[in-house]
Amino acid sequence: MAYWYNVNTGQIEQDGNTDPKDNLMGPYATEDDARAAIETSRKKNELWDEEDREWKDE
Prior knowledge:
alpha+beta; 3-stranded antiparallel beta sheet; about 20% strand; elongated
């Protein structure tokens, strides 16, 4: 079963019981992973931004 984070409601949803996919982040293997979706996304964006800065400096 896949889990999704609904960015509009902040709720966790499961396959078969979801809003339109354009409102969701996922799928995630666990409910905990889905709950951490925003924080995980923030961390990845920070990493990618740093990599972009390093690439531009080369």
